[in-house]
Amino acid sequence: MNPHQSILLPLVLAAVALLCAGWLYRRQRRTASTGAPAEDDMTLITLGNLSLSRQDDCFYNDRRERLHLTPMQYALMQMFYLNDDHRLTKPHICRALWPGKENADETLYTLIRRLKPIVENHSNLHITSDRGRAYVLEVND
After folding, report:
1. What's the CATH number where 50 sits?
2. Which residues mediate DNA binding here (predicted)?
3. d(C-alpha 79, C-alpha 16), whole Å
4. Which of 36, 41, 75, 128 is the most exposed place for a label (fewest CB within 10 A)?
């Protein structure tokens, strides 16, 4: 075995070990994050029967099942939950979600139209429009 081969073998083995460790770490994080929130999760914000876990960055229903949302749907729902009256004006949403877009009204309308059935089918919440000026997340009575 020449000197170059004796140095190369430990480097290759170390690189393989690092790749395996990284893969295992990512797999464990992905598996751990799909579980339900802990009972004592102090980062939960609940409205109706849907909870935002700020620790896990996701929403759970009352059966502790994760609600599957796109990143934009999640961002909008998080905005509703973090606002005290759960009411957001259209300009506020558009500036937050699409800061460089001059007129994002149609994009917002599409986002709301796709989010409504998900929220309404998996919780006792619904999104209403306040005469075209704002959207409100409310609990169904």
Report:
1. 1.10.10.10
2. 42-139
3. 43
4. 128
